[in-house]
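During the no-cost extension, the postdoctoral fellow (Dr. R.K.) reprocessed legacy sequence entries with the updated structure-token encoder. One reprocessed record is reproduced below for audit purposes.
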Amino acid sequence: MLLESLRTAIDALPDGLHRLRAADGAPLVVKRERAAPRGFFAMEAHGLALLRETETLRVPAVHACRDDAIVMQDLGSGRADHAAYARAGRALARLHANAGTAFGLDRDGWCGASPQPNTPTASGHAFFAEHRLLFQGRRALDAGRLDRRDMQALERLCGRLADRVPVQRAVLVHGDLWAGNLHACADGELALIDAAAVHYGWAEADLAMLTLFGEPPSEFFASYEEAAGIDATWRARAALYNLYHLLNHLNLFGSSYVEAVRAVLERYA
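Re-encoded structure tokens follow.
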């Protein structure tokens, strides 16, 4: 019913993020993308539902979605203080306590505008190599953004993943957790948004991406590590996990990311 009542308003919106109000006055956010791949917004709605079921970090409620739009609860925008970041760190640790039976998901997803294969895989090393690094590397090679030597280095790196990354269980992760997707709501509490990349993966990979494009205050990580019972040694592996996102950005945005990709390859391959 909500989507029907808003259909005319949504149809008139240009691509982008918009704020509307429902008939009862409830604030809504509409994301509109006419050329969105089929199933993109359905996957985002599914990812948000999986995150919400954990009852950890706040997640916007989804009211409706269609192929070119999703309608969600408007959480507003505010500023999180250090205490809110500490609470969010503990909540993310609780989120990552939700373990799966395999790496991946029952359906494929999206990381930004890039397809993200989630074929269920027993081994985390095999999953990250084949469905994250090599998948993006082959796309970049085919597009001429990486050369054969780069691809050979990536293949060597993937062959050594088990030596570089400790065995970890498959847990529910956001999958695209850069700082902008840890959203400060109107009341200053933090929420997870943009969830089309949700899957069962390595918790350390979620943490690592939070250091890629700026990072939350130290209270966030200290609270996470205390709640999860870990130390900060994951940071030594952050660049390796973030290679996936650098490759994705190379494919999405072009050659400005190639030197960053090659620096990681040189370090680990």
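The two ends are 54 Å apart (CA to CA). Residues 82-268 form a domain with the Aminoglycoside 3'-phosphotransferase; Chain: A, domain 2 fold (CATH 3.90.1200.10). The remaining legacy entries will be reprocessed before the final report is submitted.
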